[in-house]
Amino acid sequence: MGSTPQPRRGNTRQRIQDVALELFAEQGYEKTSLREIAEHLKVTKAALYYHFKTKEDILNSIFEDLNRPVEELLAWGKEQPRTLGTKKEILVRYSDALRAAAPLFVFMQENQATVRELSIGHTIKHRAIALVDLIKDPDAPLADQVRCFTALMALHAGVFALRDAEGDPEEKREAALEVAIELVTRAHDPESAA
Fold first, then answer.
1. Using CA atoms in the order 150, 154, 159, 161, what is the torsion angle rounded to 10 degrees?
2. Per-residue pLDDT tens for 35-88?
3. Which of 44, 52, 95, 165 is surrounded by the fewest CB atoms within 10 Å?
4. Are 95 and 176 in contact (CB under 8 A)?
5. Taking the complete model, does pTM exceed 0.90, yes or no?
């Protein structure tokens, strides 16, 4: 996984994705038409159809492009020992992936009902379960399973829930990461909380 996100500007496909995501976030997925996306791009609908046939095709492509680091993280994590160090690294890398894909995750947070109905909804759910499985012990008691799930939600809170709170976005992300690491540390080693 590279530490520098790829630029989202340049080629036509990326421009379509950027404009579509902006419109989806502004007015909602359901209220955005392909015609509006084409108008904002100053292209014909035929030019847009050359790259994408439907809004869902556009959204799926955005999701796959921006979420690739999460797929790479899952593959990497499955090959690692289940040490506390590995679990912390998974949280750090996931936090970085959330930051790089923040516009997409903000859209998904604000359009949860729509996302659940689209094909990416199942993918998101399965990726979240897979991430939790990487940071929890296989025989973890229920309370520790909740801690691990809550650790991931803390990272999401650093991107979404705290975005309107005062303060530097990076400081908020780092605070959420600190909380996530504390939760996973406690789940990994209950004696560490004493």
1. 90
2. 999 999 999 999 899 999 999 999 999 888 888 899 999 999 999 999 999 999
3. 165
4. yes
5. no
- The token pair at 158 is 């650093």
pLDDT digits (tens, 9 = 90+) for 114-170: 888 888 888 888 888 999 999 999 999 999 999 999 999 999 887 776 777 788 888
Q: Is 2 inside any structural domain?
A: no
CB crowding 86-98: b at 16 or more within 10 Å, else e: bbbebbebbbbbb
- Cβ atoms of 82 and 188 within 8 Å: the answer is no
Exposure of 56 by Cβ count < 10 A (0-12 exposed, 13-18 middle, 19+ buried)? middle
Query: By 3-state DSSP, what share of the chain in percent is helix, strand and coil, each rounded to 5?
Result: 75, 0, 25
Please name the helix (run of DSSP H) or strand (run of DSSP E) that holds residue 126, with its range, or none: helix 119-135
Q: Is residue 76 part of a domain?
A: yes
Q: 86 and 117: one domain?
A: yes
Q: Is position 162 within any domain?
A: yes
